[in-house]
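FORM 12-B: Structure-to-Sequence Request
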């Protein structure tokens, strides 16, 4: 082998470079010589892999990382030199050998050391080496990042430990979680806490953590003397123990067999001192020898301290939670006892609460009472056991154990009732009966009424001895006091309940009568609705025929007079039917207001137009006083007009001919007032309080010349109140006239008076044209009379009596308008309207519903079915003529 330019007489890697030839005895290439010179001159750990066999060459700084692998690894192929954790380097080296620069950070490597192992963390930077254009090898530079990685791991561990301990509330879970975290972090076989008994002789483990290589010690108790006296003395003195190998340590070697029994070869133990004595030990066990570092000992001591603080905090909080739970349960028990007066429910609630509060396994309440015949009874309730568990033993007798409770001789508490001198003295069992619930701990508390009478006793048991304490006595005594008050109240309640039952029997007949009255009232409302429908059907043809007579016999005075009489009476009957239905719907809450902004001036004018025929018939003079501008309120215009019309009709009827009716609209603070005054018959003082009640009227005569049902003013009051207003009536007496006032909320009235302004007048209607009209009604008289009347108006009218022919006719000859009865036999008008609207030729046709049902729901259904108008039978011919005129005048 040729001498290298860096040959010296020094030992170490330089000597190896002289001694190790390349494969085949070939001379060292210039590139490798340069790389070797670079590595030998660096203090950073470096190595190179050269040639097809990737033989390993490194510098002196790299020797510390190789450990026992040096010097055999020098000159070997990489696959042989690097094994175990070093094998993780190979992918990075492969990338560099492929011509790429590669970086691997914080690689964990296990370094072989004599008698021990050591883990280091390294960052590896690899660069390719070329000989001419060919890849010849790879050069790697390593940086030791062990301190930084371990510090980061330590920080992460402490953060995770703190977060875990803060979240847990159970002391055992805290110790278990801390053990698992330390075990995984340090890579040991078993970690746990052992409690030391008061005498310092045993170590008891409730739970611990293992990685599976060592068996758990959970549930075991170990004698400390088996593991040597000196280690125990050191722990009692507060010094932590660490044995790298128990077989080699002077303090543990004599007891190596005891350590081997629990699978321990290396251990660390941190003492936990409380109250000046060794209370517990935090231990870490390894199944093989291990060198514990000072940092690991410090970490174990810190974890032990943090965990013990967390356990102490958890136990304090657990005590507080237990106290809170008891207080809450006592409060709940008091509320439950105060909220029920049923004796059996009380007994069970008391028993359940006492059992839970005392920590007993079984609880019973034996309660003395009397039945209705005065016989003495002993009721009882159980908790924690089925009723069958006591039924075959009978009730407690006045024995030496049970007698003191029933005689109110105080509380009886025994840590083990089977050892009590009073136990086992009474026949026939002389002790615990065969098959009885296992009871060792025993607690019995008398329940005494305010009068001093013993109401019964609370009895609690547990199969383990020493469960109940003085604190338990105080808690259960408080429950017994609450129970006594509740049972006293229950007895008083029982006496009151018997009296209430008698009263209930008397009231039951009244309830039955009320239900029957409500049923009859519903039947009345349904009858009124049906009656109105049936009355409106015949009124429709009568009204149409009267109008037709008036048109065709305009020059015949007697026929015109008869036609006028018929029309007036038809309108009168229609008003009666409307009043009946409106009162029924308003009373049942079926009327829904269509609220919008309404001008009260227009309301009054419209109402006056509707009432004008009756006013003119009686030759009354009307004085109308309105503001210059609009008075706007929120309301349903239709219903408000109805209110004013009803009052005007009432004034017209009860004022002698040629009387005076004065209508005045004024404004007050936040209110608008409509006052209607007449100089008619007036009202007596006894009628004023009931004038707005249904069917209320003044003195009636056999003639009943004024007519009516007494419903108009009742509707006025209901509708005004639905608008948030008030209706009032006043009269100075009979013959002195009446004054009716409607008062409505008016936000506008809070400010200035309305400003006068003229409304825009509609443009002149277009020229009239005849329409194609189809009348659909199964009442032939109503259909024919209406058709004749419309023909007289100049329209081309066809009639259909059934729905099935209408669709075909409308498809063949699309009409301009249709008047459709809703109550058709083969298909209701709503369905027919929807089908007609779906036909292409019917999109512009005016659909008019004519029905005997005039409720708001009926109008809404008509709109949804496609009807543009809804008229109630008998159809108001004026309204129908206006609808058709509007359709005829509309641009085509």
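FORM 12-B RESPONSE
SEQUENCE OUT:
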């Amino acid at each position: 082998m040729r001498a290298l330019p860096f040959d010296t007489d020094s030992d170490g890697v330089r000597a190896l470079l002289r001694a190790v030839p390349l494969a085949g005895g070939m001379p060292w290439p210039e590139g490798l010589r340069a790389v070797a010179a670079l590595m030998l001159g660096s203090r950073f750990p470096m190595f190179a892999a050269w040639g097809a066999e990737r033989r390993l060459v490194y510098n002196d700084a790299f020797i510390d990382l190789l450990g026992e692998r040096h010097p055999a690894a020098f000159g070997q192929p990489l696959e042989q030199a690097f094994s175990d954790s070093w094998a993780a380097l190979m992918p990075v080296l492969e990338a560099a050998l492929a011509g790429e620069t590669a970086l691997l950070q914080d690689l964990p490597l296990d370094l072989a050391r004599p008698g021990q192992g050591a883990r280091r963390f390294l960052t590896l930077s690899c660069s390719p080496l070329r000989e001419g254009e060919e890849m010849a090898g790879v050069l790697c530079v390593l940086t030791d990042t062990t301190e930084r990685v371990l510090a980061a791991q330590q920080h992460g561990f402490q953060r995770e430990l703190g977060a875990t301990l803060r979240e847990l509330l159970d002391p055992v879970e805290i110790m278990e979680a801390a053990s698992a975290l330390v075990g995984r972090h340090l890579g040991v076989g078993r970690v746990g806490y052992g409690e030391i008994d008061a005498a310092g002789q045993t170590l008891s483990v409730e739970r611990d953590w293992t990685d599976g290589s060592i068996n758990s010690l959970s549930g075991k108790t170990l004698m400390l003397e088996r593991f040597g006296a000196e280690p125990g003395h050191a722990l009692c003195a507060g010094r932590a123990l660490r044995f790298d190998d128990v077989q080699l340590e002077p303090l543990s070697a004599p007891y190596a067999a005891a350590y081997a029994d629990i699978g321990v070869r290396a251990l660390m133990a941190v003492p936990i001192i409380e109250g000046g004595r060794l209370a517990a030990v935090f231990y870490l066990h390894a199944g093989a020898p291990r060198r514990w570092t000072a940092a690991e000992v410090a970490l174990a001591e810190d974890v032990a301290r943090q965990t013990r603080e967390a356990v102490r905090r958890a136990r304090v909080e657990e005590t507080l939670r237990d106290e809170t739970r008891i207080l809450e349960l006592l409060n709940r028990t008091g509320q439950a006892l105060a909220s029920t007066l049923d004796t059996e429910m009380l007994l069970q609630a008391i028993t359940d609460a006492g059992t839970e509060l005392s920590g007993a396994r079984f609880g019973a309440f034996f309660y003395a009472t009397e039945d209705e015949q005065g016989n003495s009874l002993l009721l009882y309730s159980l908790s924690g056991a089925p009723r069958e568990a006591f039924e075959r033993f009978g009730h407690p007798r006045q024995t030496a154990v049970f007698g003191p409770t029933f005689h109110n001789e105080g509380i009886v508490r025994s840590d083990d009732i089977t050892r009590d001198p009073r136990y086992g003295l009474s026949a026939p069992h002389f002790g615990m009966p065969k098959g009885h619930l296992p009871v060792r701990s025993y607690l019995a508390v008398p329940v005494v009424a305010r009068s001093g009478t013993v109401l019964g006793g609370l009895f609690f048991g547990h199969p383990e001895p020493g469960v109940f304490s003085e604190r338990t006595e105080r808690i259960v005594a408080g429950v017994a006091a609450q129970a006594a008050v509740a049972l006293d109240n229950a007895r008083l309640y029982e006496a009151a309940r018997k009296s209430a039952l008698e009263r209930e029997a008397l009231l039951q007949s009244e309830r039955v009568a009320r239900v029957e009255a409500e049923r009859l009232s519903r039947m009345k409302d349904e009858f009124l609705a049906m009656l109105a429908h049936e009355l409106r059907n015949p009124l429709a043809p009568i009204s149409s025929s009267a109008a037709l007579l008036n048109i065709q016999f305009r020059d015949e005075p007697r026929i015109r007079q008869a036609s006028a009489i018929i029309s007036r009476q038809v309108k009168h009957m229609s008003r009666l039917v409307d009043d009946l239905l409106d009162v029924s719907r308003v009373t049942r809450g079926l009327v829904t207001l269509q609220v919008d902004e309404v001008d009260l001036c227009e309301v009054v004018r419209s109402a006056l137009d509707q009432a004008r025929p009756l006013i003119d018939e009686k030759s009354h003079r009307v004085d109308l006083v309105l503001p210059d501008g609009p008075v706007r309120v929120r309301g349903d215009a239709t219903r408000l007009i109805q209110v004013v019309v009803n009052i005007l009709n009432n004034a017209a009827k009860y004022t002698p001919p040629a009387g005076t009716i004065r209508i005045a609209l004024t404004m007050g603070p936040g209110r608008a007032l409509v006052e209607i005054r007449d100089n008619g018959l007036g009202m007596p003082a006894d009628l004023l309080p009931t004038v707005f009640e249904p069917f209320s009227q003044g003195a009636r005569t056999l003639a009943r010349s004024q007519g009516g049902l007494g419903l108009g003013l009742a509707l006025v009051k209901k509708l005004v109140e639905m608008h948030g207003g008030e209706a009032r009536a006043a009269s100075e007496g009979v013959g002195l006239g009446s004054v009716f006032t409607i008062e409505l909320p008016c936000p506008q009235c809070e400010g200035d008076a309305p400003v006068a302004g003229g409304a825009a007048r509609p443009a002149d209607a277009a020229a009239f044209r005849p329409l194609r009209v189809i009348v659909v009604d199964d009442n032939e008289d109503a259909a024919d009379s209406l058709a004749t009347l419309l023909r007289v108006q100049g329209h081309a009218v066809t009639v259909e009596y059934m729905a099935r022919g209408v669709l075909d006719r409308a498809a063949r000859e699309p009409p301009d308008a249709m008047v459709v009865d809703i109550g058709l036999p083969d298909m209701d008008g709503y369905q027919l309207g929807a089908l007609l609207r779906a036909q292409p030729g019917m999109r512009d046709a005016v659909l008019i519903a004519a029905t005997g049902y005039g409720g708001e729901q009926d109008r809404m259904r008509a709109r949804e079915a496609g009807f543009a108008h809804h008229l109630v039978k008998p159809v108001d011919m004026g309204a129908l003529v206006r609808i058709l005129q509007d359709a005829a005048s509309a641009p085509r």
